[in-house]
User: Fold these one by one.
Assistant:
Number 1:
Amino acid sequence: MVIDIREVTWLREDKQILRQVNWQVQDGEHWCLVGQNGSGKTSLLNIICGYIWPTKGSVTVLGQRYGQVDLRDMRKSIGWVSSSLMSQLHENETAERVVLSGREATIGLYTKPAEEDIERAYTLLEQFGCGHLRDAAYRTLSQGERQKVLIARALMASPRLLILDEPCTGLDLLAREQLLSMIAQIAEQPDGPTLLYVTHHIEEILPCFTHTLLLKKGQVEKAGRTREVLTKEELSRFFEVPLDIREGQGRIWVSLQER
Ligand SMILES: Nc1ncnc2c1ncn2[C@@H]1O[C@H](COP(=O)(O)OP(=O)(O)OP(=O)(O)O)[C@@H](O)[C@H]1O
């Protein structure tokens, strides 16, 4: 099992930020985590990566029960791509050096990289259609190119679990679709990582995401097979507004019901 979270509650200043969360992710599944602002998504990710200790409940990730494991070792198997990472990177680094720094998950590169790592970084950049940008300064890249570089960076460490935290934020339609098709490619790799994709936008949930968890006010509203979770009834209840849904390209497109 990749993630096994049982009865996890996290209290902060008497506020229940997560309430009795149960979540099991099996090998071979890829999950989407959907929740509105403040629903507890980041808190849950912090628990999975061992940055937050739950008030109650147990957390087992990649077969390791937290409390009995060296979290620094554990985190080497988990890639986390988020916009907060983007702001931490040194702006003058080249795209290639940013990718290379993923091997040790450091901000910046402190040792001379091995030739095979340079090759791997370039292959990853090429795979994402960014080979031509290897020597470009990270700060000069577009938002879409930056996201691809950050995903390539995370893949440098060959993680077993890859968290993509709202990767399409700030992307135009074309850049978003390009990034999504690259994410679909990662999902199809037979020995690739388990994906955990966080979003507010239902239409970003690609067919490769076999399962979806809807998180609301710190509680699991629904978790299961994507096609059983993303129904008109479930989504209308979740967003508390009558919705219509339409299927296209194996994805669900949501709109407000006409009055
Ligand atoms: N360290 C903390 N101390 C107190 N409250 C916190 C702490 N961390 C998060 N919260 C609160 O917990 C709630 C959930 O926050 P969280 O960041 O997990 O939500 P989120 O679903 O990731 O939101 P967003 O989509 O806006 O990023 C919020 O109300 C937030 O203010």
Note: The first helix runs from residue 41 to 48.
Number 2:
Amino acid sequence: MNFLIADTFTAAFNRLSAIDQKAVKASVFDLQMDRTGNGLQLHRIDKSKDPNFWSARVNRDVRLIVHKTGESMLVAYVDHHDNAYAWAERRRIEAHPRTGALQIVEVRERVEEVAPPAQLELVMPAATMPAVQQPKLFAALDDDALLSVGLPADWLTDVRAATEDSFFVLAEHLPVEASEALLEFAATGRLPAPVTAPAADPFAHPDALRRIRPIADQEELEQALAFPWEKWGVFLHPSQRELTDRTFAGPARVAGSAGTGKTIVAIHRAVRLARGNPDARILLASFSQPLAGAMAKKLLVLAPETGGVVPRITTASFQGIAEQLYQLEHGVRPRIATSTILRERLAHSAKAVQLKGFSDRFLLSEWTNVIDAWGITSANAYATVQRMGRKSRLGPNQRERLWPVFASVREALAAERFTTWAQVFNKLADRLAGKPHKPFDHVILDEAQDLAPAELRFFAALAPAGTDALFLAGDMGQRIFQHPFSWAQLGVDVRGRSHVLKVCYRTSQQIRRAADHLLPSVLRDVDGVEDERLGIVSVFDGPAPLVITVSTAEEEATTVAKTVSGWLAEGITPAEIGIFVRTPDLVARAREALACVTDADVITTAPMHLAKGLEFRAVVVMACDQGILPLDDRVADAADEAELDEIYETERRLLYVACTRAREHLILTGVAPASEYLDDLRVRH
Ligand SMILES: Nc1ncnc2c1ncn2[C@@H]1O[C@H](COP(=O)(O)OP(=O)(O)OP(=O)(O)O)[C@@H](O)[C@H]1O
């Protein structure tokens, strides 16, 4: 007999007190050992429409709801006595007649039972909103189309009557595959192709595996109950599972907007590869040490078994792993030239050759993004380099004049035993290329959109080329540190092996939609790989983000303090709040605003660049003033119109990253005249 648990059970389990949870765990373990349930006093739930629902006694008050057939025992729900019964009385578990996926269907009897739609707050002030009757979102879809995406027949009428505001309330009652497909239809006018059933087994359908997981043994059960709030540890979206399980003949990439679970896929994939081959050595790396640390923690959730796969998965930051390998080779850490040193050496060399017409900023940027990034070591190489991502054109004469400056800086740095990160990565890549044995079998990288050329070369060389060697997770819309360049030219060709995730788990529909207005709907990289950003759906609903422009910094501080205090009063903890500003200097403005707020020291205040990869229940993006977003200093850096465009776009992406850290609440504040980007967020959706 199959033993299974449902996500409705883990979610309900999570809401119980610690004492009740302990008792429930013991009962579920008993049930797994003795699947007849004889020891647990099973009672059939007579009032349920589904004759296979039974209750099992956990303690005086708590009841476990199981669904028992000849072939399977499914742990479906748990709650205090009356609630547990009420839940089971209103559910059916059955294979959907069209898709074949097993579903937990909420029985739909009377239309008025569904709560009226919540009044949604809108970004625009109410006074300026025209009072329009909302169109029915799905009126154009016939029964056949609605059933094809897994909508239970009971809900056809409600869905056809749904408007934009009422749909989210309704969506909570529907199986997720149906609500996601309908949201995608609302966003794009297209219904996604249904997931085809692989076999006659309704439990094996990819949509069923999102909510119901077969448990093979006690170890798996322990893992599933160890961190019930980490739903991703047990239940994956079919598109996430597919990318976790698939074998790729060459380098592959997972893309997707913020919060679509790219990191989750990267971690699952690492564990899957490690479990699949007991000798495999895997690198799971991310942009920074804190992000690598966060992945290491999640890895333990997914593979808690001691002595298991975790020791074979190395988690590290991009620079961290390079530093370790450098140290192994050279016995010392690399002596990295800071940007102050570089600026000083460049100015000195420019003066020595009496170079005119190029600013110090330009020299540093050309050094960092062209000479050093691409490892240019000769005048010839500089004459022909494509200066990828540098939009300003440089003719042969200009390059000839510039080269002696860069050549002398290279010599000066070498003489002082300085190196740069790009040199470290490039040298290690060269060394690895000649070695028959590589340090890893599989390399998985998160935040791949911010890889520099030398870093990509290095990571591509870390594992033997071939099946599943390199897997990259990233979102072009969040590229904030690097100029774009061709991955294919460096041998990392992901064309045909690039997949986009479309379900956003982090950010409410309202916040995600507003943030999406900051970016184009399709992003294309240098190799022509496209990320389509239309049709992304969020799995939950919340208040619309607020955009507030005030006249003075004091007024802004008062607004932020009031908002944050309101969140705290609502039960959001200080650790669940993040405040982001454009530059490190502005962090003081955020701290001052929090001066009178309780437990303010636990609230994260940071520059936007450090927001990457994080998430908070509530976020404030402060100081969105003109001159700050985009940052005047950076705009002044632009060598020409084309470079100016790139700077504007990068600043926009930075704001997108900051906004998409928010799960439920987002507020943006600025002192007038405010950042022009705020107008995009204010657009009525
Ligand atoms: N299948 C899932 N079920 C439930 N929650 C999920 C699932 N997949 C991801 N999540 C949750 O969604 C949030 C975002 O996931 P993750 O950090 O992997 O997204 P991301 O695409 O890497 O985001 P970003 O691009 O912003 O770094 C996390 O809280 C994660 O736990």
Note: The CA atoms of residues 252 and 497 lie 5 Å apart.
